[in-house]
Specification:
164 residues, alpha/beta, 4 helices
């Protein structure tokens, strides 16, 4: 299922030489000139940080939103970096949901997007989802329910390809 990752972990040894190509997928920042919303859970935060770093390097003034869900503050990877990026990018607003604790954003439990409908750019933003498939389906369904057009929702499924 994760053929390359498993191969690299199981078969490649220190000193081996391999030939690689750059990533070739659909999950990339579509435009730095529109509002962008990054929605992640768990380690799905990793590509979102990369996209936010790109926006910071461009000194983006377009609205940016970072929404993240995990269990506890101790499991919140890159939390400090997100706070730093909020200082660098006045247009960046972050919201966090912890399933087992209260977050600084005041959210607890599952990520419910309806309370942010008036805040999020539902008509003109690009929405990027990364995390477990069940989480992404849950988020995608909510976005569609809020009126976000399907072509503005971008995600990457790791493992067997499936539609959300």
């Amino acid at each position: 299922i994760c053929m390359v990752s498993n191969y690299l972990q199981d078969a490649i040894q220190t000193g081996d030489h391999i030939q690689v190509m750059p990533p070739a997928g659909d999950f990339f920042l579509k435009s730095a000139h529109t509002p962008n919303v990054f929605i992640s859970a768990g380690v799905g935060v990793t590509p979102m940080i990369s996209m936010l770093e790109t926006m910071a390097a461009k000194r983006s003034e377009n609205p940016l939103y970072f929404l993240h869900a995990c269990e506890t503050p101790q499991q919140h990877s890159f939390a400090g970096r997100i706070r730093d990026l909020e200082q660098q990018l006045p247009a960046l607003k972050s919201f966090t949901w912890y399933s087992k604790a209260q977050s600084e954003s005041g959210f607890h439990g599952l990520m419910e997007l309806a309370p942010l409908k008036a805040t999020l750019p539902v008509t003109d933003g690009n929405f990027y989802l990364c995390g477990p498939s069940g989480f992404m389906k849950f988020a995608k369904d909510q976005l569609l329910g809020l009126g976000v057009a399907g072509e503005r929702i971008h995600y990457e499924v790791f493992g067997p390809h499936a539609e959300l």
